[in-house]
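Hi there,

I know you've been waiting on this one. I reran it after we fixed the sequence typo, so this is the corrected version. Both the input and the resulting structure follow.
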Amino acid sequence: MLNQLFLKKEAISFGWQKAKENFGVFFVVCFIYFIFVIVLQNFYLLSYQAIWFLTGDDVSFLMKAIQYILPIIQWVILLSFFKLALVVADGKKPIFKDIFYSFSVFYKYFIIGVLIYLIRYAVSYPVNYALNLIDSLP
């Protein structure tokens, strides 16, 4: 086992130096993260509010599905960022292929996310239906 201690200052300066050396790759990952997380989540929130304001109804099944799919995409992008950081910390030169490394496991995260959503929907729908029946009783 390697017992090497680093000072915080050394670790931060090492990380900053490596990030400056590989600015292009990290910039692409940060840009992808910005587009998928910031822009899409804000679009989702604005759409959600617009539907609720215009119709007064709860959002559709599709909007609820998007609510659960966006965090999955966020985690996949963060996995790419961590993969790049580990490649850089190992002293290797990152390539753009490393950015899309975690997208090869995207379908696993997507399937699990969809299953979680369907389970939550399957459990909450009968409960909401029963509560509405109780509210409608005289």
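Quick highlight: The two ends are 71 Å apart (CA to CA).

Best,
R. S.
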